[in-house]
Amino acid sequence: MHLLVPCIVAVLGIHGINRQVILLYGSLPSAVINYVLTAKYTRNSELTVSIIVLSTLLSLATVPLVFWLIR
Predict the structure, then answer these.
(1) pLDDT score, position 54
(2) pLDDT of residue 31
(3) Which residues 6+ apart lie within 8 Å of 18 measured at CB?
(4) Cα(47)–Cα(9) distance, integer angstroms
(5) How far apart are CA 64 and CA 17, in angstroms?
(6) Is the pTM of this model over 0.90?
(7) What is the distance of C-alpha 16 from the center of its chain?
(8) 42 exposed, middle or buried (CB, 10 Å; 0-12, 13-18, 19+)?
(9) What count of other Cβ atoms lies within 10 Å of the Cβ of residue 57?
(10) Alpha-helical runs (H) found in the chain
(11) Nearest residue to 23 (alpha-carbon basis) of 12, 34, 31, 32
């Protein structure tokens, strides 16, 4: 999803503060509510936790990079 957001913004021709907000929001990690839903509906909650942890760790690099790129 991280690489898809800049492509969508470019294709749609979004500029200015809207572009910055969308790009920043696209760099944020997965929400923990995903785990709650997978646990409730007895799906693969271990995979969900792995994705949440990985996306959170990756966001340590992607969020500052996006801040640098959009200023």
Answers:
(1) 92
(2) 86
(3) none
(4) 29
(5) 17
(6) no
(7) 20
(8) exposed
(9) 11
(10) 4-12, 16-26, 33-40, 45-70
(11) 12
Burial of 66 (0-12, 13-18, 19+ CB in 10 A): buried
Residue 61 has pLDDT above 80, yes or no: yes
Q: Identify the residue whose tokens are 């509510």.
A: 33
Please state, rounded to an integer, the average pLDDT across all residues of the chain.
Answer: 87
The phi, psi pair for 21, rounded to 5°, reads -65, -45
Number of CB atoms found within 10 A of residue 27's CB: 23
N residues, the chain:
71
Tokens of 61: 């690099």
Token pair, residue 27, equals: 């760099």
| CA–CA separation, 29 and 43 (whole Å) | 20
